Every structure is written in structure tokens, then in C-alpha cells.
Structures
1.
Amino acid sequence: MKHVTYIGTRDASIQASASEAILKGICADGGLYIPAEIPTMDTPLEELAKLSYQDLAFTVLRKFVDFTDEELRACIDGAYDEKFDTKEIAPLVQKGDAYFLELFHGRTLAFKDMALSILPYLMKTAAKREGIDKEIVILTATSGDTGKAALEGFADVEGTKIIVFFPEDGVSPVQKLQMTTQEGKNTCVVGILGNFDDAQTAVKQIFTDVELAAELEARGYVFSSANSINIGRLVPQIVYYFHAYLQAVKQGGLSMGESINFSVPTGNFGDILAGWYAMKMGLPVGHFVCASNDNKVLYDFFQTGTYDRNREFHVTVSPSMDILISSNLERLISHMVGQDLTKEEMTRLQTEGKYSVEIKESKITGEYATEAETYTAIKDFFGKTGYVMDTHTAVGYAAYKKYKEATGDNTPTVIVSTASPYKFTKDVMMAMDDKYKTEDAFVLMDELAKISGVAIPEPIRGIETREILHKNVCEKTKIQEFVKGYLL
Ligand SMILES: *Cc1c(COP(=O)(O)O)cnc(C)c1O
């Protein structure tokens, strides 16, 4: 089988195999790796429908990596096992007027587990193939969920170290405890006095700092990334778009070949981009709704063609989407308008904080939900169906309703359900009733169990009593010094 070549978003002459791209994480010029050609899914949907999640993953991923079939099988078997609390891995449930693709059945209760449970295996296999004998240092900026999922994936994985930076005051209490109580000799967790964009920018700078890389290499380290700038994060996410479609057909919601829509709660644009790749491979998708919260930089972009990060940053009830620089949008742009223009516009983003490109027929519409709309969506939907959405999923649902109202598009729709409501218990319960305002988030978990009929997920039961193992706090301008101090 011919393997996909990866090229840079800003320079098509930068080329890499899948293994190289997974290990490097980011191109030397600051661009991201994209497939030079998006492979087509040549297995008919009818055949795909017979596969388990693992076999479907094998069929999709095999098109994107340069591993042997045995190597890839081992990665998939290691990742999608009993770590997930359901055999289906990613159940599709129909509630009210939509489908919900529940991607939160992994250890950390958010969709990041779908990719981060397999990334360590992909990275180790890539390192073996490339003959890397250095210790791989995973640097990760997180808006809350990536950090824990990456820690869980890489903890005590031989030959790796992982350092996670999260916004000290920008994550939910459960998210924070999930990270600061992380065990594993090779883990390091740091709260930064800044937001996700500060952390992501610092991490990207460290990756492209040639001097620092040389210094570390001399000490036996190489950097890689567990953020969705790494192609090894994106590719596993393509699988569940196929899975959702096939499940919807099985459940009788549409006939094979008919189109489906997806509404995706979006931050760094990784999840929705994976869906877009699935569509490019041949999955019958009518439309994507790119759902934002009050940080609606993507909504404005899809409305006007201008991306402008010069605006107030809002800390919202959907913190994993509190992002003003959506890195993976660069990939979509490069596919649509080519490398030269992408390079120009990304340079403008760095110098002016904004850029403009005309994107035609991406099949993506931006929508957004305010804080009040998010709360209302949770409460009303629970009232109608008894189903409790988390705050991020609620943004996706509210955006879907607005899109449907504005366009009259009645295509069956999957809301990509990115987190368990237990991860954001306090806000979910406050959406239900203002009386919970003064209650402790952990006490409210019992209340949530009562009203939803869904038990508290095992990985966070009793988390409030676990020992805090990580207490590092760092200024946002001192991230590089911290990394050096920790490693050298
Ligand atoms: C990360 C995250 C998102 C945003 O996904 P992107 O791939 O960054 O667009 C949405 N919801 C939750 C719960 C997340 O953890």
C-alpha cells in the first residue's frame, strides 16, 4: 500500500513520513503537517458497518500511517480496551431531535481520550521505526482536558517524559484535581498564570527554538507534542465520524449513503477538522456546524473571512473551548488556498493578530452559544428528555438549533458530545437550578447522579480526597525557563 506523505501547511517542500510527522509534532518553520493527498475510503460503507470500533480504526488509520499492519494492530489493541467503560467505545444515542456521539467513555471523561489513548503507542512505534534512542519529552499546553488525557496516556510509558501546562485559574475544579493528583514518575504538571493561548504559544516557540533543541539533544532528549497540532492526534479522531454515521444508519435514522450533519463544540479546531477529513475521504456529510462559546473568533471568521484574535478573552462555563488561536484552522486554510497564501496569512497572524482569507464551500458554518444560551440548552433539554449534556456539548446543541432555525436544514444531525457532565458538575447543576450556586462541586456529583440516573464515573469517584502531587505555578513568560530547569 502506498503511504501518505505529509507536507507543511506553509511550505509544500517540507515533507515527512507519518512516523517523522508524529515524532516532530510541528514543522521547523512553525507550520503544521498535513497529508499531501487525503486518502479515499475505498471500503464500501456496507462493509465498514460490519466492523467493530477497533477494526474500523484499523481500516481508517492504515491509510494514514506508515506502520506495518502488525504494528498498527498492536497500537489499536493497546488503546481501545477496557480503559473505556463501554465495549462500543463511542456510543451514539438518540435523544430528542438529535443524535449524541458520546466520546467521553475513556479514563478522563472527555473526547481527548479517543486520540490520547493511542498517541503514546503511535509515538513509540514511530520512534522505533525511525531508530530514535533519545528520551521523548512531551510538551503539552491544555485548556483543561488534553492535559489529563495526555498524562493518563503517557504516565510511566518508558522512554518518555511529559510536561503539562494548564491555565491556573481557567479550568474546572474536577479538571484541576485530575491533573494535580496525577501519578507517574515521568509526569510534571504546571499551572501557568495566563490562559491557554499563552501556554500554546510558549510551547510552539519551544518547539521551533533550534538552540534549545540542540542543547536538549546533547542531553539525550527530543521534544514532541501531544496537542492537536500533532497529526497523530488528529488521525484517530477521523474514525469516530465514520463510526457515528454507521451507527445512525444501524439505528434506522437514515439510509446508507444519505447525508448526515455534525455539530462540533470547537476550540483548537482539531475535532471538527478530523470530521472534515472523514468527509473528504468519502463519508456522506451534508454540513458541519462549528460551535463556539463567547470566544467566537471562529464564528466571525466563517461569517466574514477575517480571523481576528484582537479581542477580549472570556473565561466561560465551557473552558475547554476558551481559545482565541485555533491552530488547526491553519490546516483547513492550507488545503483550501495553498501553502504560499497560508504562510503569508499566518505571518500576519503573528505580527498583527489577524488575517483574511476567502474560503469557499468548506461545508462548515460557524455558530455560537452565549453563556445564557448554554445554560438554557442544558435545562430545557433535560426537561424534555431527561438527558444531561455537559456545558461543551450544550454549546454544540444550542449552535445546532440556531443553525437549523436560520437555514431550515433538516438533515439528521449528530452532536459531538465531548465531555461527561460530571467533569463540569457545578455549572451543569447551576444550569438546572440557581439554588445549587452555593453548593460544593463534589457534593453536587451525588445530586447529579440522582437526577440523571447515571452513576458517578469510576475514574473521578472520590477525587477530592486524593493527594495533590503537583504544585508548580509559573509566570506565562517563564515557561521556557521552567522547561530548561526541569530537564537540564
Ligand atoms: C478540547 C475540547 C473541545 C474542543 O476541541 P478542539 O479539537 O480543540 O476543537 C471541546 N470540548 C471539550 C470537552 C474538549 O475537551
Note: The chain is about 45% helix and 15% strand.
2.
Amino acid sequence: MKAGVESNNNPLVARSGHSNLSVRWPMQILIIFVGFVLVLMLLCNYTSPLGIPVLSQYLITATTTEKNETTLEAILRKASMKDKTVIITNLNDAWAEPGSIFDVFLESFRIGNQTQHFSNHLVVINWDQKAHARCQAIHPHCYQIESKSENATFSKEAFFMTQDYLHIVWKKIDFLSTVLELGYSFLFTDTDIMWLRNPFELFYKDADFQTSCDNFSGNSTDLNNAPNTGFSYVRSNERSIWLYKFWFNSSRIYGRMHDQNAFNKIKMHPHISAMNVKIRFLDTKYFGGFCQPSKDFNQVRTMHANCCTGLQKKVNDLKILLDDWRNYMAFPEDKKQEYSRYHSWSVPKYCRF
Ligand SMILES: *[C@@H]1O[C@H](CO)[C@@H](O)[C@H](O)[C@H]1NC(C)=O
Ligand SMILES: *[C@@H]1O[C@H](CO)[C@@H](O)[C@H](O)[C@H]1NC(C)=O
Ligand SMILES: *[C@@H]1O[C@H](CO)[C@@H](O)[C@H](O)[C@H]1NC(C)=O
Ligand SMILES: *[C@@H]1O[C@H](CO)[C@@H](O)[C@H](O)[C@H]1NC(C)=O
Ligand SMILES: *[C@@H]1O[C@H](CO)[C@@H](O)[C@H](O)[C@H]1NC(C)=O
Ligand SMILES: *[C@@H]1O[C@H](CO)[C@@H](O)[C@H](O)[C@H]1NC(C)=O
């Protein structure tokens, strides 16, 4: 009996379904019509109590803020490695001039051992219009940051530690904080650092923030190390974002200092350990510089023209350094292991004085 009722019900359902269908047609036309009118009203920025102008206002603001964001975001996306990591450097006009530091920097990617492909992931931050134009002429990923005065004190070489210089270095920390917030990890590298081998292989897996040193104590977790934040690899996470905000905030107290010296002041701050930020210092054996050169040609990853002021001195010495590297690379493979026994860097030379 039950089965009979059920089979009787089926045609009933089908019939009522059929009658519903004939009602649905005008409904669908009405919905399409209303939708069409809504879109028209939106396009014409029609004002009504429905809140439509608010919606279109929202869309307009969303696209304008996005425009500012997308410029940076689009550049980061284009330059990024698969794991959302970018390499970042920054330039002013004097450093960007043909034959100056930027050219020597890019040359190091070409003659380093398998470092060429890293330049595809390099984002160059430009502080002035001239540097930006020069960057765009020779590199795919250039970003011009708005800066307080376009009036070229930045472009001059002799602006080290001036007000404008300090404005820039703190702006840089703020900018890098934005990069982290956008979800990108970065390797920040000064432009006077020569890339001779892949640096990523030697980074600590567990660190939020790792930085090169002017002088390395021999212990990578020892906060007494003298950091050189001109080469720092930072993983994007809540701890590193916090650290960059904390660092940037310290400009209220240390604003008359270089960002790196401020970092040196705050590195032992109890808030940093309380936030569990893992900081590591990189060995100058691999990440060397003129303060403390890497002694082994077979191990060196990067060399920095630190402990040197004066643009022309840096350029001269970095060119000599690249010649040293070329000589090493031209040496027979089976003799390379011995090379550092009989050869050392010819630099610092001009930078010594
Ligand atoms: C977006 O524009 C604002 C105002 O011009 C500026 O302060 C901010 O730094 C810009 N954001 C980025 C990521 O450049
Ligand atoms: C260059 O890199 C390749 C691949 O990693 C390696 O086999 C070779 O030994 C390296 N040469 C030098 C001089 O480091
Ligand atoms: C540059 O500085 C000069 C003199 O200080 C000033 O007259 C000029 O308006 C400035 N130009 C810009 C673009 O700020
Ligand atoms: C760095 O270390 C070298 C020895 O490795 C030492 O001569 C020099 O004084 C140190 N410099 C600083 C700033 O600590
Ligand atoms: C390295 O430095 C850390 C922090 O100062 C310390 O706890 C650790 O014992 C040091 N390691 C060595 C091998 O000296
Ligand atoms: C930085 O300063 C701002 C404004 O005083 C504050 O709201 C924020 O919590 C500070 N951030 C850090 C990480 O210290």
C-alpha cells in the first residue's frame, strides 16, 4: 500500500513542478530586468536610498588605492621567485650613473658562479627620477618610491648622514615593512655587494631575520655581533612584520642615526626576545666585506664594499675585486682548491685610505 501511495505521489510532484515552471519564466525575466536596471543605476552613479552611490563610491576608492598598491604589488609579483621571495636593492642617481656602482653590481651577477638568474628576481627601489630612468633602461623591475624632495640632494654623492639621507634610510625600513606585509620575503642587498655565488643555500632555515656582519664573532646567535643590515634576508611572518615596525618606531628615539646603528641599539631589547623573533648573524667567511674579507675563494658568496666611504673609491675597489674573481674563475678546476693558499683579495686598496 505504501509503495502505491509513493508511486501515486510521483506524478503529482511532476505536475506541480510543471505548473511551477510556467510561473518561473516571468520571474526570471523580472530578475534580469531588475539586475539590468541596477547595473545602469550603478554606472550612472544614481543616488537613491538603496545605498548604491555608496557602493559605487566604494568601487572607486578600491580601484584608486589598488592602483598605488598594484604598482608595487605587480612589480613584486613579476619579480618574485616561486616561494614569494624577492631580492631588493636601492639606488640614487649617483650610484645609477653608467660605469658606477649599479653597473658593477649587475656585472657581478653575470660573472658570479650561477648568479645570473637571480637578477631576474631583483627589484630596484629608486629614490629619484634620474635613477629610475636609468634603471628602467637596463633592468626589468624598477620601482620609484615617492620621496619628500625631488630636489636631488639624494642624487649627490656627498649626502651621507644628511637630513635627506636619514629620511631615506628610515623610509626604506618603512618600505620593507610594507613588502613583508604584502606577504613577500626578501633578501635586501646593498648595491655595493658583489654576488659571487648563490647566497640562499647558506641561510639558516629557522631564522626570521638574518643579516651580514661587519665583524663576525664566530657565533651566529650572539647578539654582540656587529651587524651590517645592508645584506639581510627576512622571512615574511608576523614576527618579522612586528620587528620592522618596532625598528621603524625606534626612529622616534634614534632618528638621527642610520637605520643600521639604530638596529644595533635595539637588537637586545627585551621586547624582541619576548616576541620570539629569531635573529641570526651570517659568517664573514661566506658573506665577507672590506671590514673583514672572506678568506677563501672557494667559499665566498658575497663581498661588500663596507668600511669604505667615497663613491669613486668603492667603484675602483669593486672593479679590482671583480678582476680578482675573474682570475680565480679562469684558474683550472683542479687547481681551484689550492687557490686561496697563494692568492688573496687585492682589495681594499683605494678604500684603505
Ligand atoms: C601609496 O601612496 C601613499 C600616498 O601617496 C604613500 O604614502 C604610500 O607610501 C604609497 N604606498 C606604497 C606602497 O608606495
Ligand atoms: C659553480 O657551481 C656549480 C654548480 O653548483 C659547481 O658544480 C661548481 O663547482 C661551481 N664552481 C665554483 C668555482 O664554485
Ligand atoms: C629645489 O631647490 C631650490 C632651491 O632650494 C628651489 O628653488 C626649487 O623650487 C626646488 N625644486 C623642487 C622641485 O623642489
Ligand atoms: C673587526 O675584527 C678585526 C679582526 O678580525 C679587528 O681588527 C677589528 O678591530 C674589528 N673591528 C671592529 C669594528 O670591531
Ligand atoms: C652563542 O651565543 C649564544 C647567545 O649569546 C650563547 O647562548 C651560546 O652559548 C653561544 N654559543 C657558543 C658556542 O659560544
Ligand atoms: C609602533 O608605534 C605605533 C604608534 O605609537 C604603535 O601603535 C605600535 O604598536 C608600535 N609598534 C611596535 C611594533 O612597536
Note: The longest helix spans residues 2-43.
